[in-house]
Amino acid sequence: MGNSYAGQLRTTRFEEVLHNCIEASLRSSTVVPRPVFSQLYLETERPLAHDGRTENDDEDDEDGSESNSPPIPYQMKPPPDGCCTSDGFCQAGRDLRLSSLASDPLDVPPGFMLVGVKSPSLPESLMVCAVDRRFLPDERGHNALLGFSGNCMGCGEKGFRYFTEFSNHINLKLSTQPKKQKHLKFHLYRNNQGVLVKGAPICWRGHDGRIRQIGSSLSEGHVTSDEQPPNTALTNTLHTPGSIAGPHVDPVGAPRIPDATHSLTNGNHAVPSTTQPPLNQSGPGRPSATGPHVNAGPPKKRHRGWSPESSANSLLENAVKTPPSSSATSTLSVSSVITNGVRSEAAPPLSSSQASLTLLPPPELSVNIPDQLLHICRLQPVIFTGHGPLPQLTGNAGEVLVSSLLHSCYLSSQTLPRVYQHYGPSPIQPLSTEMQILLTVYYLVQLGPDEVPLIEDLEQIFMRSWRESHLSEIRQFQQPQAPATQGRHYGIETLSMLPGLPPHLSLPPHSQQPLTPNQLPWLAQLAASSCGEGVVVVGEKIGSLAHGIQQTFSRLMEGRFENTNYVVIIVTPPGQETQSCVVVTGKHQCRALAESMFSPNEGLKEINHQLSTSVAQELIHYCNSLGQDGDLDSLLDSATVDSSEPSPLSSGQESAEEKSLKTTHSPRDAHSLKDSNSKDSPSPKVKCSSPKASCSEYSVEWREVRPIQLAVARKLLSHVCAIADSSTQNLDLGSFDRVSFLILVPPSEVTFQQTVLLLWTSGVLQELGGLDQECLSQRDAEHYVVKMDESAQARIDSLTQEAHSNSHTLYILVHDHAHWNINSASCSSSDGGSALVDQLLNSRQVRDAPNILILHVTSFPFALQTQFTRISPYNEIHWPSAFSNDVDLYHERTRYFGVSELLESTRSGSSLPLMRYDSSFESMASALEERFPKLHSAVIRTTVLIQHYCVALMAASGKISGSPNLHKHTSVETLEIVQSLLTVAQQCPAHHGHMVLLRIPSLALAAWAHRRLYRVRRQLGLEESFEIILGNPNQALNVGQSFTDQIKIWLKIQEADWVPRTYLELEALPCILILSGAEPLGESLPRSLKYCDLRVISCSYLQRTTLEQELGLAAYLVRSESRPPHNTGPGSDLLESDTEKLNSTDNEEEGGQENGDSPQEPFPAQSTTSPNVQKGTTTDTVQSPSPSQTQLQSQLPNQSFPYPQPPAQQHHQTQPQAPQSYPQPAQPHVQSPNQPLSTSHSQPYTPTSLQHQPLTQMQIPHPPPQPLPPAQSNRQHSKSTSSGSLSPRASSPHLNCSWARGVSRPPSVLLSRTLYNIVTASDSSGLPRCTSFLPHMSVAWVSSFRPLLSKMMTCTEQSLYYRQWTVPRTHHMDSSNRTEGRSDNFHPRRLLLSGPPQVGKTGAYLHFLGILSRMLIRLMEVDIYDEEDINYSVQAEGVQYHSPNATWPNPDIVKTMLFDYIIHEPKYEDISSVYSPGFKSNAEGNPVRQEDVYLRRRTSRIKLSKYAAYNTYHHCEQCHQYLGFNPRYQMYDSTLNAFTFTHVLLGEEIQLYFIIPKSKEQYFSFSKPGGQLESMRLPLTSDWSPDCIKSPIFTPTTGRHEHGLFNLYHAMDGASHLHILVVKEYEMAVYKKYWPNHIMLVLPTVFNGAGIGAAHFLIKELSYHNLKLERSRRLEGGGPAVDVWPFIILADDSCVMWSTVDLDARSGPVEHAVSLKQVLQHMEACPNLAHFGLCGIRKWNSCGLAGYKQREPYSRGHLHDFLLLNVDKSQNIQYDQKRFTCHDVDFTLRLHSAGLLVCRFNNFSVMKKQIAIGGYRTFIIKTKMTDVPTSVGPSQYICAPDSKHLFLATPAHLLLEKYLQHTSQKLFPLSTKNYTHPVLSVDCYLNLGPEVTVCFVSSRPHCVNISTTGLLFSGLLLCFADPFVSPGFLKKFTFLKGATLCVISADRSSLRQTVGRLELEEEWRFRLSDEFQTANAKEDRPLFFLTGKHI
């Protein structure tokens, strides 16, 4: 037992303890034995147990031996006489202990490090020494030079060159040879207090920087005899704590592992460093046949820890064949970066140089494979390399397989993450070799006889054991690293249960002593003894692995391992590393492991090869024999059918007739079924010839778009908008005016046609292209879909060229089924195609195009979620949950039923689960697998399956007479499927039936199965009963003509040449679909799918993606209907779902979380009883959909789909509760089975059905939504047995169509037993075990030290998990994404949409394309005010002044035109009308409108022209320089220039500021010496340039820094112009930020609270002042002063477009868009423009051209919004600076009264955009007490002077204007609704409300006023009376008795002065109470006014 002399065993005690240990182990339910060997030592109180060392010493036990004799101690050199020999002191007598030197100053030479030396005689302390760092390993265990150089820190002696010499000097008393790797244990460092303390352990890893050949375990590619593996290209770029560095690639391509810790152990087995020189390479990872013999072996004096895997693995790699991707697809799919399987084909002898590389075994040791091994044992053994090198295999090596998966698992499990290696002084070490071997034995022991070992399970067992042994340290280490992680940190979790271990089995306690090599064989044999002969441990009396393997093969040949599945060989040679391997000898396990070593494509090639062999023909012939019941072919020949056909050939050989049958499906030519003995029903074509033979229950609903698809489409759109709104400017949505797209699909003809069909019927093309639906054919839709085959290159190139030339089109590349073919284009040896996806989507042309956006769509996004992914986690869109807390979020009429729901049905226990395996089929397949060991299991299983179907067809048809026992040769499951298929169509008048799906991946096997079934169907005369369809992805769908005609009747198709091209169109067709291909390629299946037969799918599909992809075929949308109220069957009770169900979701936008306890909906009973059992007596319940998706990814909650029952009142809805803007087509009533069905008709299958439907009538790429019906106690039909089907009375009286009943239930799924056991098993987190599988064959785990997926993870968190813990392999297209030098390599315009299979992703992204197009159009459109001019209805214009074609107005003619006082501006509909003689108002009684009326005015959506003005959100390339993105000038590079300005009305000198960008300084003149702003340069009147606008443009604005339309670049068509924004002082900074390249005029501080009048006043007066300055400057320059251009433009900040009227159009006047440049240049070019004081243009409205022929081209009246002002002529007329409203009406009236010409150019119009934000009308009236707006009525706007009133923080003039507007009917009662008696307003216009008419007159001399003779006024308004107003002037007017007078002044004194000066008291009566003031405080300068009555 390896006991040393330090402790002897007492014999009786040993026997007693050993006996008790064995007995306890056999009786205990614990897998790992108790630490009984600690009881075997006598003196337990003695501290020394082995070699004088303590039991917890962590040194290697090198002297372990099988004998009881003590080892020979190491003879150390005797010390010199007189030297100190005390422990802890050097020979010079100086203290070396750390405790003594901790605080002493130590002299450490440069390049040296302080290390701690461990001495066996001083277990409690370390000794301090200094060692040259070159001879120590780095943090990864690398780069340590051989040798030693150290100094003594006690006496200071230096220059020790040998560790042996140094160990003598420091009195390191050893019993073994001194080695630095054993005794230099820890780094030492000084802490914050300066004390020397123990640090991290020195990382002796057994490498020392030398390249180690890890062989196939490191190669990500897979070596075959003709190809070399690709280099491993994983670099150490992991950023998250807890992750592990992947392998590197050295320059010569030899893979190496920096952290390969096979030699790291825990317990007392420390490992020294080793060295190996590099091998000569003949290829990457492949050693040459010959090598340097001298240097090939290890250096002398190597420690036994030097484990030369490089030799062994190089041997393997040279001697064996490695199928590509074997690790990814194998059953033992290793969960590590460095995993691969190795398939041994031929083993040439090793050269002597290679053999000399290995220390163990010696070169002469090899294993001779016995001859006839496969023939005799009928199996092909699999050898798993473990620890130590595998010996050379000679002889018949082709019959043995070698796999390094287990070895790779060992390596990965010992490769500690860096955070655990170097954090803190406490050591954390991986599992020891012995513990790994023991745990492996325990794992194999608990496996069932038919179970296949899974590396994932074993890896998790290792991880749990390690975590539990270091639980406290791990928790300590995790705390500081949490802040360093990004997002959610997935820490190491302590698991309560391990996958692969039953719950009652536990792991060894970790308080026990470390496991020693001597104990290992005994403990392993103890563990193996509990399972009999299942696991045999060979560990005694063998000296090497070669001996053990040879012995295993001998026993195998002798038949002694008949009942043994695994042989574990353990070698514990004294003084050397423990070695091990596992030989798999179980027949089932060997076959499964051998087949799992094939990649999918290689497996299919092998199947094709085997089909041509004689063994396959022998199998087929064997299966045809039915024993005593005869031969299958003979029975078919005797079928009771009238047949003149020749005898069939052997089913294994294809006859010419069968070849023709492959392409010609013509049931019309088949023999008629009129035989009197025929029990079959008449053919469908005979039955359905009558027009009355129709089914009212049939409907095709997959054309509609569902509410949840709308939600996903909107989420996609929001992500696109988020990209556009980000500051990165990666997507400029504003620059695109249309959408184009291309959908990339896998090379499956059905998938291609399916996408084309859904696209064609969706209406997207009509919306995007504006195509006429009538002329759009389905062939036109094919232009937008491309298969990823050879033709795709040209299509992508064409799109990139088109995108380059059409920069205003946004191109969407939809990559559907995105997990398919993600191979790297640079990896030529990749397995799986030509890497088209990488070549096309990742090309530079596509990647860099700013107008191409890529949308990846997939059900399995794992392969695109790695550390090097190109997709940002923020750009992932996950399919939301439809339910949250039992609340239907989307009002869906369907429920998604996926794999999670199928799994729930397996746990219900109350009925037959929907997912199950067929035990009788498995038994027969297993028997044949043993009989034909050389054949692939897929060949055997397919043959058995097809034979079962053939026999079932014969038995169910009743055509085989005299063979009553046929059902014995098939399984109950198969018989039920066939009986249901044959009989279900009889229950429906239209012969609707079910689909049966047979999944056969091999094309050759599928073709054979199709021919076989076709032949049997023909011989049985069942051609008209059901169709047999071969689903070959490379071929189009082929359906017989009679069935095609039937489908055309059902779908109401009129086209004569129509044929079905998709599986969706096979709805309700009774058929068997044989789906072939290595993997499903996105084909959607109809809802008539009833049985999904996956029994051929074997255990080689053990990546998460491939497994879920196969199971996803059964995903289903079932109809969701309410439960019948009187359901009394047991199924009416709701089943509570599993309490551990996922209860978190990614419905961030939809809100809420789903409830894990959603009610389950019952299903009808299912049973496997014989066909004679009476059905209908009871109704069992099958567990209904759980709240998860179909994919096991869905078990993670964010993709969960809980489906609680909808309310009962939704039962009779004919359409879902969708938004009103998305009408749904009328749907048939969904009736409960106990209610009469309403008759409904399906839609005709034509695109014309979409004519009255919006885009939302989208197709869905899956079976249409159909509900789950409740179980009814009176339902007779069962889908698991055929008794109900065979009996005519079995069909429900309420639902005669079995298809209609079937769409309410998901399909049944039949799996192989192996797959079933894997899928239904759960891990410790409650998730299915397969969620822990490798997610995809093209990715690898970063580390074994990763947590499991959590049940609580959302989809986003799951994505982050895979992004942290997986890396792409070298043949993955993302593997090169990390080399581009960026911290994140996310592509900015790449999105990922993930959702479960068949849930409707195609319909969602098609709808997304539609709403994206609408949004772009919406971005190109604006809401324009579209209001007809008011007050035109009674206006009579009888005179035509100008010719309609007059180019410019004639001033003389304009003078003769009457001025139109009437206001026609629609926005002024609620103001007082201006009195005009001859005008009869019809507006009397207009209601007073609210303040926000302008927000509710009528608008129209108009598409922006190319001459539009834009806000700050527009930033096209042409605008960059205009907006300030000029490379010559820095952004915000502008100057603030002061400008002093004086005006008499301002009363004081004010200072203005101009913000002038550097790029605009040429428009201004500055003083020469100081650079002071002098003036704004103005052009001359004679100047003219085609690219220049002479008039400066002033735009006053407030509150619209983002939304104001100040970008006039496009509006000016590139013309040079001067544009000045007039802003308030407090808004200066924000306007400057958004418009850095615009000139700004900053209003003085006193104008911060002023209105639009103040801005216009200052603009006009400043412009006139500047005009005078410019004239002076011109005079100084010698030019004429009058020649300076005197016009300015006053433009509103919402003017967006301009248009003109083309009078020359043939069809009459036509209005079209023009640029602002064209408008202004035309107006500026007017010859007599100087004669006009004010010019303007018409406001646009859609009815503006009505009656245009009679309209004058120029008119004289009010002007608004866009003005061309002559500041010279209007110098004496100012804007009222106090005005807030109607200032333009007031100014125009005063301008006209002054005699200036006002002209409107009616041929031009301006469009005003509706901007609901900011502007000069948004003044809020609030009190001074608080800033919160309060509701203050107009009556409170004024108060009596000196009264205590609530003062308002609002300008006084605004209060006055608002008061007069809202209370004028009280102030002027005689004026209300009295147009003939207006209020006389002198020198100003104030709005008195819409019910009062104002007559404006001017008091100025020589003014122009209307004639007031005979006019009686109802009131007089004097506002700040002009000095020209005199008593004599007022006496000209006559007033009604009782007319009201209102005098307004700035203060009370001026008010009294005005009354006295104008002698008002003579005719007006005043009262003291008639004096008022605005409700302002005294400091706010209130206004005062006095009212009076006319006497």
Proportion of residues in helical segments: 10-25%
Instruction: Specify the overall morphology.
Output: globular
Distance between the termini: 135 Å
- Tally of strands: 62
Q: Spans with pLDDT under 50 lasting ≥5 residues? A: 1-11, 29-71, 206-364, 480-511, 641-692, 1122-1294, 1483-1495
Overall mean pLDDT score?
A: 76
Helix/strand class: alpha/beta
Largest sheet: 12 strands, mixed
Number of helix segments? 49
Q: What radius of gyration results from the CA coordinates?
A: 46 Å
In terms of DSSP E residues, the strand content is 15-25%
Give structural notes.
The termini are far apart. By secondary structure, the chain is of the alpha/beta class. 24% of the residues lie in helices and 15% in strands. The N terminus is likely disordered. Strand 42 and strand 43 form a beta hairpin. The radius of gyration is 46 Å and the shape is globular. Strands 42, 43, 46, 47, 48, 49, 50, 51, 52, 53, 54 and 55 form a 12-stranded mixed sheet that branches.
